[in-house]
Amino acid sequence: MRRPDHQTTTCSAAAVLAPYLHEQAADFLRGLRLHQEHSTPTDAGGPGAEEATAALRQAARRISGALHTFRAALDPGWADHLRTELAWLSGTLAREHAYATRLGRLLEALHQLSGAALPAARTGALSAGGEERAALGVGAARAGALLERRLTLARTRAHSAALQALGSSRFHAVADAVALLASEVPLAPAAAGPASEVLHDPALRAEQRLLAAVAALPPDESAEPYNEARDAPWHQARLLLRLHRYAREVVHGAPDPVLTGAGHALDLHRDAAEAATAAASAARTPRIAPATAYALGVLHADQRHEVEAARAEFRGAWPYTAAVTAS
C-alpha cells in the first residue's frame, strides 16, 4: 500500500483537497466555454464539440469522485447534491459518444469477420464453412445497415438530450455551483486536520474496496464465454478503479501510471460487452432475414470473445499480486 507523500503529511486536508477541486472546477468551466464556442449549427457535433464534451465529462467525473471519497472533509449536504447533479450531467453527455463508438466498433468487426478468414483462436463457435461464409458475407452488409439505423437513431436522440440538458435550468444550476467551487470549497471542520489522517484513510478505503472487488471477480470463463450475467462485477471493478485513481490524484498530486494498463483493459471490456449486447438486441429485430440474423449472431460471439480477451489483458496488467487469478 502506498503512503501519502511528504506534502500531504505536512499540510492540512483543506490545503490539499481545495486546490484539487479548484483545478477541476476550472477545467470544467474551460470545457464549458469551449463547448459554447463550438455550439453553432455548422460546428455542432464536430471535433471541437466532441473535445469540449469530453473535457466537461472528465472534470465532472473527477469532481464527483473527490466529493464521494472525501465526503467527510466536505459539507455533506452540498457534496451529495453536487455529486448527484454531476453524475446526471456526465451520464447524459456520455451517451452520444458511447453510441458512436459502439457503432464504429461493430461495423469494423463486421468488416473483418466478413472480409477475411476467421482467426484460428475463434474456431468452434465462430467456425464457418463455405455456405456459412457466404451467408455471413450476404448478411454482414444487411446487419451493418440495421446496426447503423438503430445506433444512429440512438445517437441522434442522445445528442438532442445532451443539447436539451445543456440548455436546462438544471444544468445552469450545476454550472453555477462549479463556478463557485472554482473559488470556494464548502469544507467541514475536519478538513482543518492533517491531510495524512483526513485524506489518507478514505483513499485507503477506496483502494481496499477496489482490491476486494478484483479479488472477487468471476474466474476464467473460457468454458462459458457467453454469460453476460457475469459482466456486472467487472463493470463495478472498473468504476472502483476510477475512484481509486482519482483519490490517488488528490493525495499524491499525480495519477498512478501503474494502473493505466488495467484501466484500459476494463474500458475495452465495457466497450466489448456493450457492443455484444447491441448485436444481440439487433438480432431480435422482428422479421429480419436469416442471413442478417446469422451475421449478428457471429458478431455477438466475436464481441464476447473480445470480452474474454479484455479480461485476460486486465489480469496480465493488474499490478497487485495474488489479487486476481484466472482459475
User: How many structural domains can be distinguished in the coordinates?
Assistant: 1
- Number of DSSP strands? 0
- In the CATH hierarchy, the architecture is Alpha solenoid
Major sheet summary line: none
The residue fraction in helices comes out at: over 70%
CATH level 1 class label: Mainly Alpha
User: What's the CATH H-level homologous superfamily?
Assistant: CHAD domain
List low-confidence stretches: 1-6, 117-128
Give the C-alpha Rg.
Answer: 23 Å
Number of helices: 11
- Structural class based on helices, strands and sheet pairing: mainly alpha
What portion of the residues fall into strands of 2 or more residues? Answer: under 5%
Order of helices and strands: HHHHHHHHHHH
Global mean pLDDT:
88
Q: Kindly report how far apart the N and C termini lie.
A: 25 Å
Kindly report the CATH topology. Answer: CHAD domain
Write down the overall geometry: globular
Explain the overall architecture.
It is a single chain. The protein has 327 residues and is mainly α. It is built from 11 helices and no strands. The protein has one domain (9-119, 134-325): CHAD domain (Alpha solenoid), CATH 1.40.20. Helices cover 72% and strands 0% of the residues. Helix 4 (76-115) crosses helix 6 (169-181). The longest helix has 40 residues, at 76-115.
Question: Can I get a quick summary?
Answer:
With 327 residues, this protein is an all-alpha fold.
Layout of secondary structure:
Layout: H1 6-10, H2 13-37, H3 47-69, H4 76-115, H5 130-166, H6 169-181, H7 195-198, H8 200-215, H9 231-252, H10 260-283, H11 290-317
Helix pairs in contact: 2-3, 2-6, 3-4, 3-9, 4-5, 4-6, 4-10, 4-11, 5-11, 8-9, 9-10, 10-11
